[in-house]
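Page 47, continued from p. 46.
Same chain as before, 148 aa.
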Amino acid sequence: MSDLKQRINDSVKDAMRAKEKARLKTLRLITSAIKQIEVDKRIELDDDAVIAVLEKMLKQRKDSIEAFEKAARTELADIEKAEVLIIKEFMPEQMSDAEVDALIDEAIAATGASVMKDMGKVMGKLKTQLAGKADMGVVSGKIKAKLS
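Result:
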C-alpha cells in the first residue's frame, strides 16, 4: 500500500475515534474514489495516482463552490470549502511561483517551443513534474503569456 493511501486510512481511523463526522465523511469520499478506480482498473494505486484522484476531487469541489456561490447557496459552498481543506492535507507541498516559472522556462527551452501551437508539448513535459505541486490552470496561463 502506498504511503499516501496509508496516511488517508490512518486519518479515517483517527476521525472515527474522535467522532469528527464531517471530516470522516470527506475522508470516506476520498477512500471511496481511490477504491473505485482500483476495482475498475484492477490495479493498486501508487502515490502519484492517488494525487491525481485528489486533484480531480479538488477541481470538482472548486467548480461546485463557484456554482453554489453564484446561486447564493453559501451553506453548501461552506461545506465544499471544508472538504477542500481536508483534501489539501494530503496533497504535496505547493511550489512557489519562482520555482514554477523556472520549470516552465526549462520546459520551453527543452521542447524548443516558440509559438502557441507548441503549448501542448510544454504542458506535457510539465504535467508529470508539477502533478499536485502547482495549479495547472495557473501554469497554463503562464505558458500562454510566455509563448504569445
